[in-house]
Amino acid sequence: MFLRRALAACAGLALALTPASAVLAADLPAPTGTAPVTGPASTTGQPTLTGVRTGRHDLYDRTVFDFTGGTPEYRVEYGVLEHQGMGGRIPLNGAATLLVVFSGAAPPAITLTTVYNPELPTLRQIKSGGYFEGYASFGLGVRDRLGFRVFTLHGPDRVVVDVAHPPTQPFGANPARSAGTAPDALVSGVRSGVHPGYDRLVFDMVGGQRPAVDVRYSGSGSAIRVTFTGQGSPTTAPHASFSGPAQYTFRHLALKNLRFTVVGAGIMTADVGTAARHGFRLMVLDNPTRVVVDVAY
User: Fold this and answer.
1) What pLDDT, on a 0 to 100 scale, did the predictor assign at position 265?
2) pLDDT class for 12, splitting at 50, 70, 90?
3) Mean pLDDT over all residues of the chain?
4) Is the pLDDT of residue 295 over 90?
């Protein structure tokens, strides 16, 4: 009888949980996207910002903007925080700033001069750019330009911004491999960037499947060879190709140049010239698919 009552009580508690609280209770995977994110308002009125909260999860840091009267339209992207209506850059602790702008909002019910210093694995500081004519802005000072996601929850109303923790993979000189099932190895673009302690090389891939990737130093020098392999049939596929130039020049501390070579039978290499043999790491990310090679300096 006692066990039956206990199970009934647990069932009642589970039913009392709203979908929003259920989402918050469960940890999500680390976000990987770095492109701007926009979202519509949930109301035709003017929501009021009532609070800012932060928290640490296993794979990401979370910032929650609490509202009443629904959630406003938002845009979140890496950029520069400026004073609303006046201009002028607002500095934040951290190597990058994630800019959060709400539009169609009522004057906030909180003090916008408050500076938040959570000093979490990624999230270091939060400042407001102020409020002007329905626009309220905030800057999230983060330790690096890492993946983020944005979503809204209701009951109560809030906008949630998650920023991934820094990668934990060590840098090394040993070959690194990632298995894949993509029939084609198609690179649609190449991007690079400077991060604290390393340069990042990103290969944007066509399609939602991962190609097989092998990364290793070429001989005893500092050049790195990235090999892409498709898994399709030799007659109808695989194909290996790249969009854009066959050669790139970088002016970073570690990355110097890159040259593509299509080997055939679905195999393509990218030879990457680096300044010194300081180690690298490989990551393959999804949604969209991209191959990331970080080179230490």
Assistant:
1) 83
2) very low
3) 90
4) yes
Could you tell me which residues come within 8 angstroms of residue 205 by beta carbon, excluding any fewer than 6 positions away?
182, 185, 186, 187, 188, 211, 288, 289, 290, 291
Say what the pLDDT of residue 23 is.
39
Query: Average pLDDT in the 260-266 region?
Result: 92
| pTM score of the predicted model | 0.79
CB burial string 110-138: b at 16+ within 10 A, e below: eebeeebebebbbbbbbbbbbbeeebbbb
| Mean pLDDT, rounded, for 189-208 | 95
Q: Which residues are paired to 232 by β-bridges? A: none
Q: Which residues of 263-293 are buried (b: 16+ CB within 10 A; e: fewer)?
A: eeebbbbbbbbbeeebbbbbbbbeeebbbbb
Tell me, what's the pLDDT at 284?
A: 95
Question: Mind listing the pLDDT tens digit for each residue in 216-250?
Answer: 999 899 999 999 999 987 677 789 999 999 999 99
Question: Do the bridges between strand 135-142 and strand 96-103 make them parallel or antiparallel, or are there none, so unpaired?
Answer: antiparallel
Please report the DSSP string for the chain in residue order.
Answer: -HHHHHHHHHHHHHHHS-HHHHHHHSPPPPP---S-EEE--S-SS--EEEEEEEEE-SSEEEEEEEEESS--EEEEEES--B-TTT--B---SSSEEEEEEEES-PPPSS-TT--B----SSEEEEEEEEEETTEEEEEEEESS---EEEEEETTTEEEEEEEEPPP-PPPBSS-EEE----S-EEEEEEEEEEETTEEEEEEEESSSSPPEEEEEE-TTSS-EEEEEE--S-TTT---EEESS-SEEE--SSSEEEEEEEEEETTEEEEEEEESS---EEEEEETTTTEEEEEEE-
Contact 128, 138 (CB under 8 A): yes
The residue count of the chain comes to 297
Judge whether 148 and 162 are in contact, CB under 8 Å: yes
